[in-house]
C-alpha cells in the first residue's frame, strides 16, 4: 500500500509545483564528462587556433552538453595531465525557460546567449561583479563577444548551494560566470593568453 500512496503523492506534488519545482525537491544526479574526450577537444582546439594562443600549458573547455548542475568548465593542464572541473553558468537566451540545459548558442547582439567557439583569454579588469577577465572571440560564431562584453566573472547564482537548493544554476547574459570560490583558480590557471573553448562534446 505504501508504494501507490507515494506515487500518488508524487503526482500531486508534480501537478502542484510543475517539473521545475519537483526537480528542486529531488536531488539531481550529476552528469560527468569523459576526461579523454575533454583532453582531445583541448588538443584539437590548439591544433586549430594555436597560432593565436601565446600560452598553451592550460586550456579551458566548457562542455555545454552537460546541465548547469554539473561541473562542466574543464581546466586541462597539459603539464600534469590533470583535468579540473568547475561549475559555470550559461546565458539566459540560451535557456529561456530555465531548464538548466543550454538549448542554443548565438553570437547575435543583445541575445544574452552563450556563444560557441574558441576564445583567447585577455586582460584582467574590475566590473560590476568584481574582478573579471576579458575574452576575444576567434571564430565567426563568437566574433561579437568583445562588443557584447562577454567575460569571465563570478556570480552569486553559481555555487554548490544553488545546485542543492534549485537543481540548477542561475543564468548569465552570455558570460562564463563561475562561483566566488572558483574565480581565483580560473583567473590564475586560465589567465591572459590562453585558450577557452565553448562547445558541446
CATH homologous superfamily annotation of the largest domain:
L,D-transpeptidase catalytic domain-like
Biggest beta-sheet profile: 8 strands, mixed
Q: Tell how many strands the DSSP assignment holds.
A: 8
CATH architectural category of the largest domain: Beta Barrel
State Rg.
18 Å
Sheet with the most strands: spatial strand order: 3-2-1-8-4-5-6-7
The residue fraction in helices comes out at 25-40%
Number of folding domains?
A: 2
Low-confidence stretches: 1-27
- Ends apart, CA distance between termini: 45 Å
Overview of this protein structure:
The chain has 201 residues and is α+β, with helices and mostly antiparallel strands. The chain has 2 domains: 1-28, no CATH class; 31-199, L,D-transpeptidase catalytic domain-like (Beta Barrel). It has helices spanning 2-25, 35-49, 145-148, 160-166, 183-189; strands spanning 58-63, 73-77, 82-86, 117-127, 130-137, 151-154, 176-178, 195-199. An 8-stranded mixed β-sheet has the order 3-2-1-8-4-5-6-7, sandwiched between helices. It is globular, with a radius of gyration of 18 Å.
Which terms summarize this structure?
5 helices, 2 domains, disordered N terminus, globular, 201 residues, alpha+beta
Summarize the structure.
This protein has 201 residues and is α+β, with helices and mostly antiparallel strands. It is 28% helix and 23% strand.
Write the layout of secondary structure elements.
Layout (H helix, E strand, L loop, with lengths): L1 H24 L9 H15 L8 E6 L9 E5 L4 E5 L30 E11 L2 E8 L7 H4 L2 E4 L5 H7 L9 E3 L4 H7 L5 E5 L2
Amino acid at each position: 500500500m505504501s508504494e501507490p500512496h507515494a506515487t500518488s503523492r508524487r503526482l500531486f506534488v508534480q501537478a502542484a509545483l510543475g517539473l521545475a519545482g519537483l526537480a528542486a525537491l529531488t536531488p539531481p544526479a550529476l552528469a560527468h564528462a569523459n576526461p579523454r574526450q575533454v583532453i582531445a577537444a583541448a588538443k584539437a582546439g590548439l591544433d586549430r587556433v594555436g597560432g593565436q594562443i601565446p600560452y598553451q600549458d592550460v586550456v579551458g573547455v566548457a562542455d555545454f552538453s552537460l546541465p548547469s548542475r554539473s561541473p562542466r568548465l574543464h581546466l586541462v593542464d597539459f603539464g600534469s595531465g590533470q583535468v579540473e572541473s568547475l561549475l559555470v553558468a550559461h546565458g539566459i537566451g540560451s535557456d529561456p525557460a530555465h531548464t538548466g540545459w543550454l538549448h542554443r548558442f548565438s553570437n547575435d547582439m543583445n541575445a544574452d546567449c552563450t556563444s560557441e567557439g574558441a576564445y583567447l583569454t585577455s586582460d584582467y579588469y574590475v566590473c560590476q561583479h568584481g574582478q573579471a577577465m576579458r575574452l576575444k572571440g576567434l571564430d565567426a560564431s563568437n566574433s561579437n563577444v568583445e562588443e557584447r562584453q562577454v567575460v569571465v566573472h563570478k556570480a552569486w547564482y553559481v555555487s554548490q548551494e544553488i545546485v542543492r537548493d534549485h537543481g540548477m544554476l542561475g543564468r548569465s547574459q552570455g558570460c562564463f560566470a563561475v562561483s566566488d570560490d572558483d574565480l581565483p583558480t580560473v583567473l590564475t590557471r586560465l589567465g591572459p593568453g590562453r585558450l577557452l573553448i565553448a562547445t558541446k562534446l
